Amino acid sequence: MFVEAVRLLLNIPLAARSEDFGQALRDIGLTVGNRPELLDLVASAAERLDTVRRETRSRSDLGEIAARALTRTLSSSMGDTLPSLFGATPDDVQAVARRMSWSKGISGFTREFFGSLVSGTLSYWLDRTLAVQIGEGRRFPSATARNAFDSELDRFSSEATRIIQEFSSGWYGKTLHGKGGFGTGDAATFGAVALKKTVSELRARGAKDV
C-alpha cells in the first residue's frame, strides 16, 4: 500500500494538467465525479488505498502510515492553499493541484508527504511508551508538554526530509519527460530512493547527537 500511496502522490498533480480533471483522476483509479472538490479527492484517495488493501490482502504498518500520510498531505497542502476550504470551487482545487505538478510544487508536496510519513512512523513507536509518561514526576508533567513534544517531532521530521525536496523535482521532471506518467514501478523506485535518503539523513542526525 506504500507504493500505491506514492503512485497517487505523483499522479494526482499530473492529472490536474488535463482539461478533464475528473476523468484523469478516474484513469489513475480514483472514484470521483467530473468536477471533484477537495473532500472528494481526499475521500477517493482513502477509498482507493482501502481497495488495494483488500485486493492484495496485505496489511503493514508502513502501508497504514503511508495511507494516513497521503490523506493528511492532500488535506493540508491543498487545503492551506485554497481560498477557503468550504468556499473553494472545483476549479480552485484543480488549479492548486496543477501548481503542485511543477518543479517547486512537487518538491514541497513530496517533502510534506515523507515528513508526515516519518512523523507518523516515529509516533507509532513512541506513543506506546510516551502515553504513560504524562504526569507529575514523569517525562511530561502535563498534556501541554506532550503536545509541545509532538510539535517538535513534526518539525524534526520535516527537517529530516529536506533532502527529498532537493531531488524530487529533478526526478519527477525527468521521469515525466521520458515516460509521460508514473506507473507502479516508477512509484516503487521513487519511494525506495526517498526512503533510503531519509533513513541516511536520520542516521546522520542521530550520529551528530551522540
Which key phrases capture this entry?
mainly alpha; 9 helices
Question: What layout of secondary structure does this protein have?
Answer:
Layout: H1 2-15, H2 21-27, H3 38-56, H4 61-79, H5 90-99, H6 103-130, H7 143-160, H8 162-179, H9 184-209
Helix pairs in contact: 1-4, 1-9, 3-4, 4-6, 6-7, 6-8, 8-9
Q: H/E series, N to C?
A: HHHHHHHHH
Strand content range: under 5%
Binned, the helix content reads over 70%
**Structural classification:** mainly alpha
What is the helix tally?
9
Which spans of ≥5 residues are poorly predicted at pLDDT below 50? none
Task: Give the number of DSSP strands.
Answer: 0
Radius of gyration: 18 Å
The largest pleated sheet is described as: none
Q: What is the straight-line distance between the termini?
A: 35 Å
- Overall shape: it is globular
Give the averaged pLDDT, no decimals.
Answer: 84
How would you portray this structure in words?
With 210 residues, the chain is mainly alpha-helical. Helix content is 76%, strand content 0%. The protein contains 9 helices and no strands. The chain has helices at residues 2-15, 21-27, 38-56, 61-79, 90-99, 103-130, 143-160, 162-179, 184-209. α6 (103-130) packs across α8. The longest helix has 28 residues, at 103-130. The radius of gyration is 18 Å and the shape is globular. It starts with a helix and ends with a helix.
